[in-house]
């Protein structure tokens, strides 16, 4: 058989893979375990652990920042969070019995209250040892339907913070919490990778334009199909992204996304109606998985509007691979034909390799700000200081400026509290792009 002349191999010697240094993650960003710089920063804040409704009549295993813990709620209604190995001889308290005032180990019957005091020893009533035993524990606060914990040093425990959207509710409004322990992801929205992969995504308005709207059909809402003018801005406690799009018939649609230190976000909704955003926390379960908790403010009994989402997007049954149910496993071919967050986020691997990244001045201004701020605050903690948002005299206020606004003739409707100067400038002139603050 004649195979013809062999193709001539390239003699270009630049850019080949051979001998390349191994790509590495940014360790401060991706590690959340005890004693790591990022983990110590995260432990200085009250962090959501479970929805109040996640805890029923049995002890619940919870993993957060690489620590395995047992959460329970006594018959008296008080929740407790304990180190799982019983301080007697190590049986897991996951198999313990929940009682009125504590959790009783199933092996020899030592009982611990919500803050770890040993309050009964079934086999040796009245033992003097009881007062000397303490099951290691973390404090909890139950608020807005979420159980929060503080896992840092006791002497640096901050006051529980305030969130602007959770205040001054009208009689017809309510705060709704979603997410929690059951929020394990599915085919389309994976959660089995490092928490910073999804955290970056919050400050990434351009992927809404490309991936979610122009690559292979509208996945969420149709207005994202237009290229926005975007400005990123650092704030004292995080970053803002402003995305402006001209509206047909005049006016400007402004979407504002927001990121707070160290792991709280406020993203605009999948609606074009003027509104204020909710907030959500990204919680590292360990270094290769995360969960989310969302808080929304809404009119009592009115479900989140998903009209357009249901008509055109992933939720409609008409986009891409939605010929399969959301719980049905996707094949490699499915994922090669239709991409969404599943491919772009999980596609970075369990832990992204930041040494490979080439951040763009246009696209990555927000990502750059929040990565740098996280590392700066981790360094503050390492030097013995208190990071931004940690207060001891007055509760810290997270001021949510995120949401959707419509700007017409110098007036706005929609999101409250955003920076009027920036908005006026963006509406009048088209926003000048601000490059990333380089690392
Ligand atoms: S191991 Fe828990 S009471 Fe003995
Ligand atoms: Fe996305």
Features:
439 residues, 2 domains, Rieske Iron-sulfur Protein, 23 strands, ten-stranded antiparallel sheet, four-stranded antiparallel sheet, binds fe (ii) ion, 9 helices, binds FE2/S2 (inorganic) cluster, disordered C terminus, alpha+beta
Using DSSP, what is the number of strands?
23
Query: Given the helix and strand composition, which structural class is it?
Result: alpha+beta
Rg over alpha carbons:
25 Å
Largest sheet: 10 strands, antiparallel
How far the N terminus sits from the C terminus, by CA atoms, comes to 58 Å
> β content, as a range?
25-35%
Globally, the shape reads: globular
Q: What is the number of helices?
A: 9
Which molecules other than protein and nucleic acid are bound? Answer: FE2/S2 (inorganic) cluster, fe (ii) ion
Description of the molecule:
Helix content is 17%, strand content 26%. It has 439 residues and is an alpha+beta fold. The chain has 2 domains: 46-150, Rieske [2Fe-2S] iron-sulphur domain (Rieske Iron-sulfur Protein, 3-layer Sandwich); 158-429. The structure holds FE2/S2 (inorganic) cluster and fe (ii) ion.
